[in-house]
Amino acid sequence: MRPTLHTCLSPALLHLYDVSNSIVVIIDVLRATSTIATALYNGARCVIPVDSVSRCIELGRQIDGITAGERDGQVAEGLSYGNSPFEYPREFIEGKTLVLTTTNGTRLLHMALEKGAKEILTGSFPNLSSVCNHLLASKQNVILGCAAWRDKVNMEDTLFAGAVISKISQDFTINCDSSHMADTLYAKAKKDLFDFMKKNEASHYHRLMGFGLEKDIRYCLTADGANVLPIYKEGKLLLN
Amino acid sequence: MRPTLHTCLSPALLHLYDVSNSIVVIIDVLRATSTIATALYNGARCVIPVDSVSRCIELGRQIDGITAGERDGQVAEGLSYGNSPFEYPREFIEGKTLVLTTTNGTRLLHMALEKGAKEILTGSFPNLSSVCNHLLASKQNVILGCAAWRDKVNMEDTLFAGAVISKISQDFTINCDSSHMADTLYAKAKKDLFDFMKKNEASHYHRLMGFGLEKDIRYCLTADGANVLPIYKEGKLLLN
Q: Residue B168 half-sphere exposure, CB side, CA atoms within 13 Å?
């Protein structure tokens, strides 16, 4: 019997899936989980995801961590850095703890935690292969959890789910239309993900382009630029 | 200013959309909304959608209506007919009232009603053009509401949303990733929707094929076989 794989397109649908019996991959491609992979790849000791700016400030002070997070495309008041993966090169982040506040990804992670997920990982194109290899080796049921945008399904998280499925589907039983749809979408888009997002007027494409962040989008849609496996343990995302 | 169009992929996401300011198209391709279009096309006086077998029996008795509905692929106990569009030819249904119990589609319809939708229609491939023409003529905001399956996103309802979008997108403002995804999916699938459902292992394809209902699936995926416009008014679906 092969393990099952499901794709949950929005946090508002998570209750429909058997979380407590699964590895949950948290997907927030633009840009939380891409930045998490990048910071850890560049030597961050760990990343602590928190759900509010005030909690970020408080925790950053307590543990002498780097506080980071944005609201409406700007570094949030009281924090030091933003959500861009380019803010966390090795020479800056190595050996440090990043306290990162994001909205959609952090919320989904805490939901998966509350529902008793067997294991929680974060996935993004920069760490696509690590995620796939881990899921193949684990032989456990998998839920690909898209963080979406305020519960609305989004394109880039769905595309990442499709990318994972395209690489590992043969080892899983997939009775899940969302997964087959994500797989089809990715097959159509994979030649040029940036161009696909642009042509299909993806909402985050527009939002981030409006902030002048084309470089971020391109990096976050490129496979294996920070190919590590962030696993959630006791409040922290750490490398395996 | 063009009106907006959004696609809601599951009833569990309906709260994210501005229902009270929109026409809502209820989509339950396999088979509720296909059967509704067919019964009305063949001269049914109206279709009354109800959410339980007991309510169906009660109402059928009160108004001397045809009671219909299935549970697990069988005509539900106490009802007279099933969910197949082929059960409602003109020689049988003309001039009669069909009391139809379905789960997913009826529930979504009632949710849209409670949220104060401006107008509620039912959409399916058999009445694709009527729905599109009406939406184009109305110049109102539109929500394409997929009934899904117990809140899980499904392929055929998403494909129908994509079919509508492919025909009317130029007249609407679409800031909605779900809509762009549905459009892309439909573009990929439209050459042979049945084959696409089969190849992509759509869950309802398997379920209905298991009941020997290939003919139903093929009919329900074919455009304009019952090209009428069911509009919900005071508890009933009627032709405009």
A: 32
> Who among B150, B155, B183 is closest to A181 (CB)?
B155
Q: What are B123-155's pLDDT values in tens digits?
A: 999 999 999 999 999 999 999 999 999 999 999
Interface predicted TM-score (ipTM): 0.95
Q: What angle do CA A192, A196, A198 make, to 5 degrees?
A: 120
Beta carbons of B177 and B195 less than 8 angstroms apart: no
Q: How far is CA A160 from the centre of its chain?
A: 9
By Cβ distance, the residue of A12, A155, A178 closest to B180 is: A155
Burial zone of A113 (CB within 10 Å; 0-12 exposed, 13-18 middle, 19+ buried): middle
Name every residue in A having a CB less than 8 A away from some CB of B: 9-10, 12-13, 16, 150-155, 158, 174-178, 180-181, 183-185, 188-189, 200-203, 206
Q: For the residues of B113-151, what is the DSSP string, one character each?
A: HHTT-SEEEEE-GGGHHHHHHHHHHH---EEEEE-TBTT
**Six-digit token pair at B4?**
């907006």
- pLDDT at residue B103 is higher than 90: no
pLDDT for position B70: 87
Q: Which residues of A122-157 are buried (b: 16+ CB within 10 A; e: fewer)?
A: bbbbbbbebbbebbeeeeebbbbbbbbbebbbbbbb
Relative orientation angle of helices A177-189 and B177-189, to the nearest 10 degrees:
80
Asked whether the beta carbons of A11 and A104 are under 8 A apart, the reply is yes
Task: Give dist(CA B19, CA B208) in Å, integer.
Answer: 31
CB contact under 8 A, A153 and B203: no
Contact between residue A124 and residue A52 where contact means Cβ atoms under 8 Å apart: no
Smallest CA-to-CA distance from A179 within A192, A198, A160, A194 is with A160
pLDDT at residue A73 above 90?
Answer: no
Pair of tokens at residue B186: 């439909």
Interface A–B counts its CB contacts (< 8 A) at: 86
Whole-angstrom Cα distance, residue A147 to residue B175?
18
B156 contacts A178 by C-beta, under 8 angstroms: no
pTM of the model: 0.96
A126 pLDDT exceeds 90?
yes
Contact at CB, A200 and B181, closer than 8 angstroms = yes
**Distant-in-sequence, close-in-space partners of B38: CB < 8 Å, separation ≥ 6:** B85, B88, B126, B225, B226
